[in-house]
Specification:
about 475 residues, 10-stranded mixed beta sheet, 6-stranded mixed beta sheet, 13 helices
Length: about 475
């Protein structure tokens, strides 16, 4: 069971921390876990719920990025390909190997021979082999697997492997691991100010649930706030935000046996089977609004549906087929020119002043490596004899703590599931349960009656607006 909120606040404020992580998305969670496992006195604060921003709004893939090979980013592909297998090793319940079918058409995109070479290289870059070997598919095999695929110009396909994950669940279980190792992690706690005082930072953290402010001291601060990272005091981050949207439809409307790669110009979209549904996405367009205001616009949804219908004309998907949708932001390292799809997904870790680190860019798949590199730098400056990272070897959770409520597919809608999320996973508000812990809203769509039931069950489980869960 997680510690009471009051106990976590005490641990954050009682004595100086070695490292204070700001941001409770996947990168911040990874940093907190890595630091806590090394024995550093670690705290993490998140102004909203854990994973509420980018880290619950991704394409839910652990992948090297096949398209980055064509852009020449071989090092990035290798790095991410190795990391996807590392996550599968330490958290198999959140890394489900998934086949991807990439069709080839005459006069459009990469020819079939290039795709065949590309997926074999992709296998090699996994550092010992992919989940399963890739292979070419003949025209006949492709039509058998995808009978509703547009036949005009079809030449065949390739099939390669990546993994399906549950992005928000990966954050929660990473934080459970950090907490188990002694880290003090707190959602609904906003980092408001910081000033350097000798060899440590003195910061102000506001409890969003009560309005109370708390003084937190730390020898080092890691800014891992994603799309919000350029707005923190002392941050030296410059971002280029791009928006990606996803739509969920019933699998019966698009019965694909594997994930399918759909191309439109330079863009790649996916049709990904997920628990009786298919996730369609993503877009990649510049975004200049406030991160908290990002939303699926009608034009975004129309583009995705139009592209998928071009490839699967028999599906004839319409807006009324969309069960749910989400929009998220990619906090890419700033680059003023080029199209969003051409911007590298490489990450950067910078130290603009003593004791302060900004970590930006990257992707979901490489979060563990990003965290390891960041803590390596912090440990070096702290000057203590800090042991090396254990996160590539240590299971995310002991087998006994991997519950039926923590997987790629949504858990059954039960009172017991809600109680678990409240008592063991820091759920405070209904959306914490409905969207990020369970995925029920994404799988089944918004449902007022279900929301009211969840609210009642949360009250029964002792969840109060004070957050003493």
């Amino acid at each position: 069971m997680i510690r009471l909120r009051s106990s976590v606040l005490h641990n954050l404020t009682a004595a100086p921390l070695d490292i204070l992580v700001v941001g409770g998305g996947i990168v911040g969670a990874g940093v907190a876990r890595d630091a806590a496992l090394r024995g550093l006195r670690t705290g993490l604060v998140e102004q909203h719920d854990f994973a509420e921003g980018t880290s619950s709004r991704s394409t839910r893939l652990l992948h090297g990025g096949l398209r980055y090979l064509a852009q020449g980013h071989i090092g990035l592909v290798r790095e991410a390909s190795i990391e996807k297998k590392t996550i599968h090793r330490i958290a198999p319940h959140l890394a489900q190997p998934l086949g991807f079918i990439f069709p080839a058409f005459a006069g459009q995109g990469n020819p079939l021979w290039q795709l065949r070479i590309g997926v074999k290289l992709y296998d090699l870059l996994c550092g010992g082999g992919n989940f399963e070997p890739s292979r070419g598919l003949s025209l006949v095999e492709t039509r058998e697997l995808l009978p509703s695929l547009r036949p005009e110009g079809l030449r065949g396909a390739v099939r390669y492997f990546d993994a399906l994950t549950n992005d928000a669940r990966l954050v929660i279980d990473t934080l459970r691991s950090a907490s188990r190792a002694g880290g003090a992690v707190l959602n609904y706690a906003r980092f408001e100010a910081a000033r350097r005082d000798g060899s440590e930072w003195r910061t102000t953290v506001r409890d969003v649930l009560t309005g109370a402010t708390h003084d937190v001291r730390a020898r080092a601060i890691v800014n891992a706030t994603g799309p919000w990272s350029d707005g923190l005091p002392h941050s030296a981050v410059k971002l280029r935000l791009t928006k990606g949207i996803h739509l969920v439809v019933d699998h019966a409307r698009l019965p694909v046996p594997d994930a399918v790669v759909v191309t439109e110009g330079k863009r790649i979209l996916f049709a990904i089977p997920w628990a009786g549904r298919v996730v369609l996405g993503t877009t990649d367009t510049d975004y200049r609004g406030r991160p908290e205001d990002v939303a699926v616009e009608p034009a975004d949804a129309a583009y995705v549906l139009r592209t998928v219908n071009t490839w699967f004309p028999g599906a004839a998907l319409q807006e009324s087929d969309v069960i749910s949708s989400w929009a998220g932001l990619r906090p890419l390292v700033a680059k003023p020119d080029g199209t969003p799809s051409d911007i590298s997904r490489a990450h950067e870790i910078r130290r603009p002043e003593a004791g302060w680190w900004d970590i930006t860019g990257g992707k979901l798949t490489t979060y563990r490596l990003m965290a390891q590199q960041a803590v390596d730098q912090v440990a070096s400056e702290l000057g203590a004899a800090v042991p090396p990272s254990r996160t590539a070897q240590e299971p995310l959770l002991p087998a006994a703590e991997v519950t039926p409520y923590s997987g790629v597919a949504p858990a059954p809608f039960t009172r017991e599931a809600v109680r678990h999320y409240v008592e063991n996973e820091w759920a405070v508000r209904p959306d914490d349960v409905l969207v990020r812990r369970s995925g029920w809203t994404y799988h089944d769509g918004p449902d007022l009656a279900r929301r009211e039931q969840v609210t009642r069950w949360m009250t029964e489980a002792g969840s109060k607006r004070t957050g003493d869960n």
